[in-house]
Amino acid sequence: MQRSPTPGSATSMREANRARIVDAVKRYGGLTQVELAAATGVSTATVSTIVRELLAAGVVETHSTSRSGRRATRVTMARQLGLVAGVQVGPRALRVALSDLALDVVADQFLPLPPDHRVDTTLDRAALLVMDLLDQVGADVEELLALGLALPAPVEAATAELTVRGAMRGWEDAELAPVLSRRISRPVHGDKDANLGAIAEHDLGAARGLRDVVYVRIGHTTSAGLLIGGHVHRGRAGTAGEIGHVQVDPAGPVCRCGNRGCLDTVVSAPALLGMLRASHGDLTVHDLLSHAADGDPGCRRILADAGRAVGQAVGDLVTALGPESVVVGGELAAAGGVLLDPLREAVTARAVPTVRGAVPVVPGELGDRADILGALALARRKTQIELA
Amino acid sequence: MIRSQPVLSARAVHKSFGPVQALDGVDLDVHAHEVVALVGDNAAGKSTLAKVVAGVLTPDAGTVTVDGNPVPPGSPASARALGVATVFQDLALAENLDVVQNLFLGQEISGKGGLGLDEAAMENRAREILESLTSRIPSVRTPLSALSAGQRQTVAIARTQLGSPKVVVLDEPTASLSVAQTAEVLTHIQSLRDLGHGVILISHSLSDVLAVADRVEVLRHGRNNGSFAAGEASHEAVVAAITGATRLPRRATPSSRP
Q1: Homologous superfamily of B8-93+165-243 in CATH?
Q2: Domain carrying residue A262
Q3: Which residues of chain B lie closer than 8 angstroms to A35, CB-CB?
Q4: Measured between CB atoms, which of A67, A109, A121 is closest to B180?
Q5: Would the CB atoms of B190 and A112 count as touching at under 8 Å?
């Protein structure tokens, strides 16, 4: 795409068609040539020619398959080196993705989950979804090198066992990585979602090239991933960066962790939506964000106050760690300036002032894909260590 | 921002099939932008209620109103015109037709001057609808026979969008689907809610119901037996209401919301 040929020429047409075909293969994971023609509007003869070129260039792979009893050629992206999988378990959703070792996602799936979903059912569904995605891209389970598991709470590095009680009801006391690993018979490595989001923003997003970074994840709860010297600082029992459990009100309500007046009792999806219930009825996080974007004053106020409360906790963390940048991600970060501006002001007001000016507070570049990309990045990192 | 009047309201609906009383004074409210799940054992009256709401069955007593207008009994076409679109369990799709043809079956867009069909317009509209539901069907010209069970459900849900309905009724949309296909259908249900529709979701799978519903209404032997805000409902409490371990007193009003 660097040199743009004359518009309308045969070369530009072929390049445009080639790009459309590659896009379609990426979007659907794998398609037969006939489906490719239908999805792109390019004639079957041209699809066939372009697929042959892409095959020779090592961009795609073809597999024989059958569709409604007829033989067909299925086209998928090339992945000579194998695939990695990412699974993100959230309080209300499961996200699963497959990527190549360049972290180019080849297939993904999103499954809404009930509140307090059970560990056995959810891990089982995660395993089934991974198998289904492998099938979708025409890959065997042997091609899967490793799986990264993102969890919404601090975990032990080796086993992905949760280390803070109350974060996920019924998920404690289970060695989540070995359990999932047995189900898919591949190596599984787990970590807290904020740590993985930090890795992803460092490898691919807003924290590229930086060494010391605080990644703040504001979603169902609030947490931070700390990068020191480019490496995740996990701390004892993986609890480094758990700013959701910084005390903001000594006389506040008791938190799920057992302490009093934690940030999570003020800024968490249930707390924020609870404050809107009397005036707005039952909302979801998605409703809160879309109402705020439409200018609803109550929803904007709730988000602004949440940003300020998180900013105060992050300000102290900035003083303690002295990071080069604060990157803000998580579901609520999608609110944009309404949340981010008060957060930035609070960080600036609270952190130690320096002659170099205030620490930059920036939105993440990967949006809600940060954690799952981080899970894929974790799987890739662990795989490279094993190959070396 | 106080929640408005319900878009669909069923009051004291009775329906008997000979000696069998399928519905015995059932009430149901659905608001815009809300997913209401209807759960219950086999023969609790879920599908019967769906058919009454869709205008397929005539209730023996009781009323169904959409935005205050009564749905004329026994007239699916008028229910549709009032804004109730229904996907029944059998989906009612034609295997030999492609996605566009299935969507527009019986409501084709005719070409200029009433000659032939405006294929381009139908194709574009089909793409738009599938996009708004975040569907992953590669081509709108794929014949139904080449689609998976989950994709067929997607087509059936997409078809409800043609009349810009107020309420979409889905009868067991995730029955006999794989996890990946269930994931897709649940995502569509969330999209329907985001588009501002009221959704009635009938399902046996409590985990699917609790994943996407705003409110869960339990039916037992043709009567209301509990109403739960899905965010707070425990699996156990809903199961207790379904099996009759907990009972509602007769004629309690369900879902009295502000």
Answers
A1: P-loop containing nucleotide triphosphate hydrolases (3.40.50.300)
A2: 208-364
A3: 138-139, 142
A4: A109
A5: yes
